[in-house]
Design brief:
This protein is α/β, with parallel strands linked by helices and 302 residues long. The protein has one domain: Rossmann fold (3-Layer(aba) Sandwich). Helices cover 48% and strands 15% of the residues. The protein contains 13 helices and eight strands. An eight-stranded mixed sheet has the order 3-4-2-5-1-6-7-8, with helices on both faces. Helix 1 packs antiparallel against helix 13, helix 7 crosses helix 13 and helix 8 packs parallel to helix 9. This is Flagellar biosynthesis protein FlhG.
Length: 302
Amino acid sequence: MVDQAQKLREMVRQSNYEVMDSYSDREYKEDKTRGKIVTISSGECGVDRHNIMLNLAITLNYLGNKVLIIDTNMDNKNNGYILDDKLPDFNLFDVIYKNMNIKDIIVEGPEGIHLIYIGQSIGKMDTLNEKEKKLFLDKVCSLKNYDFILIATGYGINKYVLKFIACSDEVILLTNSNQTNLKDAYSLVKVIKHFEMRNSIKLIVNNIKNKEDGEMVCERFRNATKRFLDMDTELLGYLYEDTNLVESIKMRIPVCVKYPNCKFSMCMSDIGKKISCETHSNEKEVNDIRWVLNKFFNLFCF
């Protein structure tokens, strides 16, 4: 296990250079259309990351950003909400196995956001040969002009969750006051730190009753991750418990669309503004989806 962990750390450190080698210098320098890759995770179940991702995507869209969602959830039950009961007919790997164009598998969701579904086909990433990888990445190369690419990971802590975290420009961790969910979130941070993937994460505290409740959860979590893991945690914001959220889910309409002035939507608006402002004021080059998937291929298999 120690050898495996050391190998993984080394692969994470080297993966950027390996992926950069796959681009020509000209291609990389002239590609000014790269979007910021944000992975949203929580560890185990209990925090509604897909609903939060959807409303964050819509909020970022309202702020003038073009947003692509990559849904890695292996259980289809969440996609009906995102797509208003229209499950995607195709997934990302149909560009290889059915020779489809990448744009043909993009589904337009609420308020003009775009979505690509991976789901249960994610395991095929480990089985592609070099020719298939090249074909896959060449087709994915056409996915440009997105300001944000949001990835909500599936449940649990597995190699695919860790790969997407390692590939991202930013990781947003979701938690709430539930002790089990706090432990799950802490466990994920512990694994991220163990494999030296990053030294800081962003935090959203969900389902709070009041500001004091959110501050208490944030402070406890931040203190624990800093003291025991030496991991910095930046608070992005709180999301209030809101009956309007429950009603909007029943109607299968995103709460930010149905109830834009409710507590949840206003909090999400503040979070979206913070993320958007940070991105547009940051001069650091970020990466496109081809870069992410290429790095995904070059990262660990275990």
